[in-house]
Amino acid sequence: MNLWKLKRKIHISWLIAIVCAAIFVGVFGAQYVKFEYFSSLACLLSAIVLILVVLWRRYIYLIPFIVVGGVMLGLWRGSVSQNALSIMKPLYGKSVVVAGRVKEDVDIGTSDQIIIRLDDLHIGQTSLPGVLWITSTGQGIKRGDGLVVTGKLAGGFGNFSGVMYRAKINEVIHPNTADIARVMRDWFADAVRRVIPEPESSLGIGYLVGQRRALPADLVTALQIAGLTHIVVASGYNLTILVRLTRRLFVKVSKYLATLSAVAMIVSFIAITGMSPSMSRAGLVAGLSLAAWYYGRKFYPIVLLFLAIAITVMINPSYAWGDLGWQLSFAAFAGVMIVAPLLQRYFFGDKKPGTIRQILGETISAQLVTAPILMISFGQLSNVAIISNLLILPFVPLTMLLTFAAGVASLILPIVIASVIATPAIWVLKYMMFVADYLSNLPWAMSEVKFTWLLAAVYYLFVIIFCVYISRVTKFNLRETNLVE
Does position 169 have pLDDT exceeding 60, yes or no? Predict the structure, then answer.
């Protein structure tokens, strides 16, 4: 290569993508290095200087320096977090009394147990890092409540710093200031349940606000086998529907009002559902896409993907160390925003996809990208996911609207009239439950598979090569895709 080519400048967006990918590598690698080497202020300052110099000059030959700077920054952030987590290790295997705050809605586990995610941890006056995964028994525990629990602390998994099985709940502390968003959500959910029977009401509420934890266990299993869990958890799919609807409703008035309303929708939805890993990704990506749309700019999905990855792992490095929800959220995003548009262009040319073709393309693409993670984590793969998504996804926006209308009617009208208004929602929800139940009970609905991370790496390499080939053949510009449009 001629030297003059190395002195050419590269667009800053690609430099941002490169440094963000390097940051992720650094955060991920921090769990395998001695954190005291990289948690110093000197490491942080050196990384920042390297990154800023390359972003300022933007020459191609400086790319290795921004990679080094990004990795160093990621190692610094991950090492600082590892240093904090080291406080927990001497406590493993001991019985301790821990105080904390319930981070998310309580799950109903097996044998009448509940599953609690506890953060803001304290043992006496000593603060502890991370989030505890706790199983216990009890009722009436809500998100935002304070708990004092006793149990034997064990090593954590995924993004949990510790685990406590069969913990004893000593005290439940209801805060003086209630979680207003949760209270409003539960209040509206109760209104829906007055006019829509169970389990249809819980399914409709799951669509509307991503509250999966109220669903019956058998319905959750059916949704998992049918590959439909993603539409009833707090995820990007629910949020995208609401943001797109809000933007399109108000853009006829003004672009500013449309943006402001959509941002309010993002903030409100996250406040209602809670800041889970998938919601942090969904809210961040939707917000960045909305900002780009408002200023007349366009993100390359690859740049947006790595930017969101870097921001989330810098805020919470444990996401990079094994959080399944975080992994699946970004994998599905890559499938929908990168693979799906390329496949549409390759097979159908410039013709804009209709609803059915778009859902089919996005479902297949998301399944292609998330399949290795699911097979490694569960050893199973749904064979009916594409069919079930094709039969159900087109009706999800309508179901959300009908469920919302039923809830509003329950609040302002006599129950007799509200029940009539809720009838269409009940019909559609029954249809969806029938599809999920029927497909999940097919003998071939689920396959047992064995998959390793080495096979996954080879698989993803082929996917990347295939995407590069399609982009070269079709000359399709991925900047034309925008999440909120």
Answer: yes
